[in-house]
Amino acid sequence: MNSENFSLSEKIVSTSYIRQGREARRSHEQLIRHLLEQGKCPEEGWSESTIELFLNELAVMDSNNFLGNCGVGEREGRVASSLVARRHYRLIHGIGRSGDIAAIQPKAAGSSLLNKLTNSVVLDILKLSGVRSVASCFVVPMATGMSLTLCFLTLRHRRPKARYIIWPRIDQKSCFKAMITAGFEPVVVENVLEGDELRTDLEAVERKIEELGAENILCVHSTTSCFAPRVPDRLEELAAVCAKHNIPHIVNNAYGVQSSKCMHLIQQGARVGRIDAFVQSLDKNFMVPVGGAIIAGFDESFIQEISKMYPGRASASPSLDVLITLLALGASGYKKLLSERKEIYLFLAQELKSLASSHRERLLHTPHNPISLAMSLDGLQADSDKAVTQLGSMLFTRQVSGARVIPLGKEQTISGHTFRGFMSHSEAYPCPYLNAASAVGITREDVTLCIKRLDKCLKTLKKEGNAAKNSSLDQSVCKDLHCFLYIDC
């Protein structure tokens, strides 16, 4: 409804009522105008009606929704199912063009505007979360692993002689396979044990650079968010090393946006040294469906270079999902979620520590990990070799998802490389343990229920272990008695 249509409406319905309706619509349009002017996440979240009005306005700007449009090309935004069309708000053309994921589509002004606004709003959120000097970012419709691969492939053109990627070990398959898929040889640097924590071995990184030659190294591939007792890499020191040797530095910040500590490490690393790009997941940080990531950095030209490396057009779904989410939450709503996550982290640590003590275990001391916690399972291991892995199965069948049980001595071969002690980020971590994490969106009820079910599982396994020991002892006594009677005869 424009002003002319409102004027015509006054001939049909009372002028006072139409003016009231016009003012109501104007309040929606005012929010949209601020978004277009500032390109930032609104401080307060929008209502669903405002968001839907905005998306419908964008959709009618795409050629597939033009009244009387006659499409004779091979890709005209045709959709067979009306359910699919509604699911995507009739934004069918996707984002980008064949040569650049960030390019404007002549057929799809609305989808192009959606893409540009999403990248702008996400950049604002990255700054708000702690990386204030980030210069550019874009949403890519791939999860973290493939997004890292895209970064490595872009660096290949800058360093054509490079064969190796230096990678402080983290036992997560996708980031390792990202390097293999890009055609490079990962150089695994084992972590060092400091107390309970596994930390970056900076001396080993320096030795590898000297051994391989800086010109043969594509980049250092570091990590922030991770499972305890692994803690975020020493980003400031690694960034300084990369600047010293003129080696690019790519950071896997998978679920680090929700952590002020992880974001501070990236900000400081860029300040004192070199960080070329950092990659983060959409689903883990913004509670949207899996399938998108954010590639960000401090040099706008390099980030544009990465976006141009993406072949073909791309799905707009991840961009649409995260834009809807951030408009609904607003900056204040997202900051509130981050604050609540921090509070629940402390609650989870307290509850795990109490539970561990009651079972003669302990909460591992990992103060440098701001998201994940770990509890030892020494006693469980002593009861039975199978008890540790059995605990993981019991938790899963009791609908406790996300908890990871890490046994000792597991081996895993990934793309020809064998990891000893796989899942523990170390060849020989001193004890088996259980992981739990306080990630964005977690509630106190989640923690309380998890602790209750974990306690029951541990008690059950302890009872079974004692029964097995008693049974073994009874058999041993019977065997000794049989031998005694036989000899006496």
UniProtKB/TrEMBL annotation:
> What is an example of a GO molecular function annotated in this UniProt entry?
tRNA binding
**Acetylation among the record's keywords?**
no
The broad enzyme category this protein falls into is transferase
For activity, the cofactor(s) needed are:
pyridoxal 5'-phosphate
Recite the UniProt keywords alphabetically.
Answer: Cytoplasm, Protein biosynthesis, Pyridoxal phosphate, RNA-binding, Selenium, Transferase, tRNA-binding
Cellular location(s): Cytoplasm
Reactions accelerated catalytically: O-phospho-L-seryl-tRNA(Sec) + selenophosphate + H2O = L-selenocysteinyl-tRNA(Sec) + 2 phosphate
Pathway info = Aminoacyl-tRNA biosynthesis; selenocysteinyl-tRNA(Sec) biosynthesis; selenocysteinyl-tRNA(Sec) from L-seryl-tRNA(Sec) (archaeal/eukaryal route): step 2/2
Asked if the record carries the keyword Lipoprotein, the reply is: no
The residues listed in the UniProt record as binding substrate, with positions renumbered to this chain, are R97, S98, Q105, R313
Function text: Converts O-phosphoseryl-tRNA(Sec) to selenocysteinyl-tRNA(Sec) required for selenoprotein biosynthesis.
Report what the protein is called: O-phosphoseryl-tRNA(Sec) selenium transferase
> What is the protein's species of origin?
Sander lucioperca (Pike-perch)
List the gene name.
sepsecs
